[in-house]
Amino acid sequence: MAGLYLEDFVVGARFTSGAHTLDADQIRAFARQFDPQPFHLDEETAKDTFFGGLAASGWHTAAITMSLLVQSAPVAGGLIGAGADIAWPRPTRPGDELHLEGEVLAVTPSRSKPDRGVVTIRCETRNQRGEVVQTMTCPLLVWRKPA
Q: Does 26 fall in a domain?
């Protein structure tokens, strides 16, 4: 298993990801399949909604965040979430270039399963202007280095 192990994580460590640029076609394609609401599907209709224009689904932003997280924190055995606290303080728009800024909040070895532990991280997904479009705090199951 290539990647990071529990012992590689340190509380307070920060990481950033590369970028993902989102366009209207991606927003509409995701919405058609997973969140078919007018403000995700049609620019004209979206103008008269709460968002005042086309906006990506929060779940689309979360999926992009997951991709950026996998790229920037490649955990040995894969990223296995154990829940999450997630919020979308502002909409993600066509043309937004998203990147992830993360911090390790806790590293907790398991007392009952010595081969693993939990790393709790906080991630902010930001657009090209530095505005936060998603926050997420989540515990991740992380394996210890093999003996």
A: yes
CATH of the domain at 37: 3.10.129.10
Per residue in 6-54, pLDDT (tens digit) is 999 999 999 999 999 999 999 999 999 999 999 999 999 999 999 999 9
Domain assignment present for residue 63? The answer is yes
Residue type, 17: S
If one counts the domains in the chain, the total is 1
Which structural domain range is residue 12 located in? 6-143
Q: Which CB contacts under 8 angstroms, 24+ apart, belong to 135-138?
A: 135/86, 135/87, 135/89, 136/62, 136/65, 136/84, 136/85, 136/86, 136/87, 137/84, 137/85, 137/105, 138/81, 138/82, 138/83, 138/84, 138/85, 138/86
Residue 1 lies in a domain: no
* pTM of the predicted model as reported, rounded to 2 decimal places: 0.94
Q: Nearest 5°: phi and psi at 17?
A: -110, 175
Closest CA to 108 of 1, 11, 4, 2: 11
